[in-house]
Amino acid sequence: TKVLLTGASGFIAAHILDVLLEHGHSVVTTVRSQAKADKIREAYPKMPKEKLDFVIVEDIAQEGAFDEAVKIEGLEAVIHTASPFHFNVTDTQKDLIDPAVIGTTGILKAIKKNAPSVKRVVITSSFASILNASKGPSWTDHTYSELDWNPVTMEEAVQNPANGYRASKTFAEKAAWEFVKNEKPNFTVTTMCPPMVFGPIVHYLNSLDALNTSNQRIRNFITGQVKSEIPDTGTFIWVDVRDLALAHVKAIEVPQAADKRFFITAGYFSNKELVEIIRKNFPEYEGELPGKDVKGGDYPEAGLYKYDNSRVKNVLGIEFTPLEKSIVDLVKSLKAVGA
Ligand code: NDP
Fold first, then answer.
1. For 129, which DSSP code?
2. Centroid of ligand 1 to alpha carbon of 85 (angstroms)
3. Which residue owns the Cα nearest ligand 1 atom 45?
4. Percent helix, strand, coil in the chain (nearest 5)?
5. Which of 77, 122, 163, 253 gives the lowest tally of CB atoms within 10 Å of its CB?
């Protein structure tokens, strides 16, 4: 299948690219600069241009940004991952919401207008669009599933960057389903809703200073930045990046994935567990880690919400990587870039 993948310079997209090529698909991927295209190309020296090609889309927040990029002969599927995931925002609307929402609606409009051969579209949404933050982690009588929607409002979105990010993902995913309802396009849409994503980074794109957001807490542990107290975990559920990448690719391969949302989590974790996994497997970081008796990072005493991850297992056949393997592989990949 010929696939357009947006944002291949990202942590998750780099793994999706790997799986797509492994499964024999032909990939055209968008990046923001020629320099990024060159780096990715170097990582796949033997891959011919028909199998791996690039198109530059500098800013997905611009209306019509994808209009030309989708004009690809024989294009059948699109995987849209590009969206800002960071908290350095000065203007929530411009920095987070516009690229998320206009990026998503923009690519859907562009496909409808200029790429009539496309049959499947997969969008990387987030648990952020499912979670009800006002209920906190100890909403013990609730089971999160694909039926839940984050009730965040625009007013709450601008209160702080965490709200802003979660709102950007919620508004973007809602806009995608609205598009399907109103425009009745020729293609199906599938959305992926992962919580915290951990796992190895690809060495060719990353450095310790320019690390994707969800892996930063592990970098902070092994570089001695949080020795006196383990920070709150925040979101207590996670998934390995390789399982998530496979799920995106299965979503274009498995017909039953069409028109569905997928909540993809492997289960619970706490920051304290992450520290103990690193301590057990990497004695060389003992001096950097918070000590054994340091406070914080535990599960809440009042318990946790529950989760239902059955759809992703039943429809896409995903088997989950255990937390210890994900963190060990991540730390190894951070060592490879100098940690
Ligand atoms: P990264 O920051 O590694 O990747 C983000 C990607 O989006 C990069 O390729 C980035 O390009 C691109 N991008 C951001 N803003 C723009 C813009 N204005 N114009 C063009 N490209 C842009 O993060 P992840 O890989 O973690 O995130 C990928 C997706 O997964 C996002 O949609 C995110 O919301 C979602 N997600 C991530 C989770 C996680 O824990 N990691 C959890 C749930 C969802 P560049 O590299 O050039 O900056």
1. G
2. 5
3. 9
4. 40, 15, 45
5. 253
Ligand 1 midpoint to CA 100 (Å)? 10
Burial letters for 80-112: b for 16+ Cβ neighbours within 10 Å, e otherwise? bbbbbbeeebeebbebbbbbbbbbbbbbbbbbb
Q: Which residues contact 89 (CB under 8 A, 6 or more apart)?
A: 95, 96, 161, 164
Query: Domain map of the chain by residue range?
Result: 2-199+237-265+303-319
> 60 CA to middle of ligand 1, Å?
11
* Matching residue, tokens 């807490």: 217
Q: What is the DSSP letter of 308?
A: -
Architecture per CATH, 2-199+237-265+303-319: 3-Layer(aba) Sandwich (3.40)
At 339 the pLDDT is 84
* DSSP strand pairing (237-240 vs 267-268): antiparallel
- Ligand 1 pocket check for 196: Cβ under 6 Å: yes
Q: What is the ipTM of this complex?
A: 0.99
- With a 6 Å cutoff on the Cβ, whether 261 touches ligand 1 is no
- Whole-structure pTM value: 0.98
Higher-pLDDT residue of 209 and 59 is 59
d(CA 262, CA 114): 27
What is the per-residue DSSP string for 266-277? -EE--HHHHHHH
For residue 7, report the distance from its CA to the centre of ligand 1, in Å.
7
